Amino acid sequence: MSEEANMWAQAEQTVFSQLTGSDLLVENLKLPADFIWGAATSAYQVEGGATQDGKGRSIWDTYTHLEPSRTNGENADVTCDHYNRFEEDVKLMKSLGMDTYRLSIAWARVIPLGGRHDPINEAGITFYIRLIDTLLAHGITPSVTLYHWDVPQALYDRYKAFLNTDEFRADFERYARLCFTRFGDRVKSWVTFNEPYIISIFGHLNGSLAPGHCLQAETDTKTEPWRVGHTIILSHASVVRIYAEEFQPSQNGRISIVLNGHFYEPHDATKQADIDAAQIRLEFYVGWFGDPIFLGRDYPASMKEYLGHRLPRFTPDDLELLKATCSVNAFYGMNHYSTKFARQLTTPAAEDDWTRNIEESSVNSKGEEIGPASSMPWLRIAPSGFRKLLNWAWDRYQLPIMVTENGCPCPGEADLEVAINDQFRQRYLGLYLDSISKAIYEDGIKVQGYYAWSLMDNFEWSSGYGPRYGIVHVDFETLKRTPKGSAYYLQQTFQERRKDQA
Ligand code: NOJ
């Protein structure tokens, strides 16, 4: 073992000694026989082929090239080169026993300029047909996300993308119709948008993701994130209606959206303000989208009260559309990684505050940490928070849950030996699967499936190639794929956990 690997192995041991002796021991609890599992990726993060076969540019091509320091000096022009290596990747998924694969379509690959009157790129369509057919030929069910953060740059140049609701919505409807028409005979599971919270806040307030709006630029961070969210909600509802009316009767697929969210515990469990803060933080994070989309109603009262005129209003027609489409959503797509503490601040909030002046942290008022840290300081092992979030989403929305992303990068994973023997991740995954089992069998919640994030190490947005979330290691010099211990762990644990379950 190299010196560095040795150092990290010791660091991991320290983390594990924190883990053992606590309730953080994997119990290998059962899962239903028809529970499905697989892995997830997104187009920009794994495909590469940035300009290959007529692909247009997306806001991420611009964001990474314009000021490379924003993405650790790196971009995803090549990344895992999945565009040219997908056959090898599908074989790998098959060899690991996956039932399903969650991928996203790069809008600019199929409509390079993105708009409703712009030409279609047949080569891009062919790529996705080949990928989907290869999956099906290997017995792997595709789940396809239409939008995982990569709006065509031309639409941003024309009308600032999400900031023009009517234009965006019309262009997204055409793009979705194209996908349903060309892929819908083969794809039976659709997701419209991935993580609307992140698109709105990180892309249009913090500026840490494309298109990078933030207070310094000539933007209005007081209102823009909420306008972006509004556009996403209405575009989702329109596309759900299109699918239900024009495609579902013959294609028989399912459609929904993927919402991410941490769970929140009160920073000081003896203070009512912090207890309320934990609930309100969930409403601002998840209820923002979940209430209009899944319940067919207005934004949560807590948001309307705090944000006032900063929050756009739904018209009576909008509300009718939301009401008409909410029950078409067939599942709650949940991306979940970790839990945080929420603390109600009393000091004045910033003008563009988006949290109702609630601070998040990994340590509570007693100085206790929420859980052992992965290589991302915010991402800690906290499986009981996961179970609580499953309960929260189920109680509020009463929809079967698909866990569309879950995973972590390990401490020390830059070293190949540590990556391959990724004990930390195996422990994390095992504990989170136990939480799903408890949610199903003890709490009576319908959880139908699980996707590890990610199939393979890839371009982690503003962190570039630093954090490695894959269950398969990728050497970014040679592009060689090597399954990590966690890939084999998942293969085996799903076999065992699902054995003989009614
Ligand atoms: C959420 C996003 O959907 C995905 O693109 C990202 O890489 C992971 N979480 C990890 O941060």
Automatic annotation (TrEMBL):
- Statement: the UniProt record of this protein carries the keyword DNA damage: no
What are the protein's GO molecular function terms?
cellobiose glucosidase activity
Please, one GO biological process term?
cellulose catabolic process
Q: Which domain of life is it from?
A: Eukaryota
Query: Which top EC class applies here?
Result: hydrolase
Entry keyword annotation includes Hydrolase: yes
SUPFAM superfamilies in UniProt: (Trans)glycosidases
The record's catalysed reaction(s) read: Hydrolysis of terminal, non-reducing beta-D-glucosyl residues with release of beta-D-glucose
InterPro entries assigned: GH, GH_1_N_CS, Glyco_hydro_1
Keywords of this entry: Glycosidase, Hydrolase
What Pfam families does the entry give? Glyco_hydro_1
Q: What is its EC number?
A: 3.2.1.21
Q: Which family does it belong to?
A: Belongs to the glycosyl hydrolase 1 family.
Record function comment:
Plays an important role in cellulose degradation. Shows hydrolytic activity against several glycosidic compounds.
Name of this chain's protein: beta-glucosidase
